[in-house]
Amino acid sequence: MQENNHSNHQSAKKKVLPKRIILVRHGESEGNLDTSAYSKIPDYKIPLTEGGRAQSRLAGSHLRDLISGNGSCPDWRVYFYVSPYERTRSTLREIGKSISKKRVIGVREECRIREQDFGNFQVEERMKAIKETREKFGRFFYRFPEGESAADVFDRVSSFLESLWRDIDLNRIHKHPSQDLNLIIISHGLASRVFLMKWFKWTVDQFERLNNLGNCEFRVMELGRGGDYSLAINHTDEEMMEWGLSPDMIQDQKWRITGNKADWNNHCTWYLKSFFDDLDSEDDDESNRFSFPKK
Prior knowledge:
This is Phosphoglycerate mutase-like protein AT74. It comes from Hibiscus sabdariffa (roselle). It contains twelve helices and six strands. It has helices at about 1-15, 30-35, 50-65, 85-95, 125-135, 150-170, 190-200, 205-210, 235-245, 245-255, 265, 270-275, and strands at about 20-25, 75-80, 105-110, 180-185, 220-225, 230. A six-stranded mixed beta sheet has the order 3-2-4-1-5-6. It is globular. It starts with a helix and ends in a 22-residue tail after the last helix.
């Protein structure tokens, strides 16, 4: 009896990873079309344009085709995380028109993946000058007056990722191992870039080179055979180069398709070399070791 209970307990604890984690930027908003909208409407209330709604419906169709394998995968399911902003919730609503509700395991509004805070109402000319200063200072560490830096967004997205992993570890969102679970995170450009930075251990310098996602553009992280996620399964080298990934970063994505996460440090010598000099030299000379001075 005790053995059965132990076996059931171990089975319940077994972690089942989502097949894909997909980051989606919202559709075109009124603020994307006319930046003066931010001076009259609170950022979180900025709506989609008609074009943005059409973009979102098209993205929903593409996402359905992707996660269903164009109809070849019968047991796929989705779980949505969405930023609380009007434009992201509207994007989700339009995407949802392409997905049967029986396929949706759940949805959660998640404040930690909201847009970077640029302050309250944004005076257009002042914001133009502020953004010019940001380019000189550096996009990651520059904090908007009364707002946030990308580093601040990194902290809250990191907190969200910890919660996400806890839900995965405890099987809170993946009830049936036979089903292909897809997590779709509908957020904003900078929050999505920061999410990828945190997940793949990209440095601040690497972040600074990244380009923003287009409206309703998405990044697909798919689980590889080695148990790690990779962008290279669904995206080409050319796409990743356009996003700002370096050749080393692209090679890392390819390695993650089959690589074992435990071997990552041994594989990514280019990453370690960005922190250390003469990493390849082996110091076996006893005379070079630190020693305490004799009294």
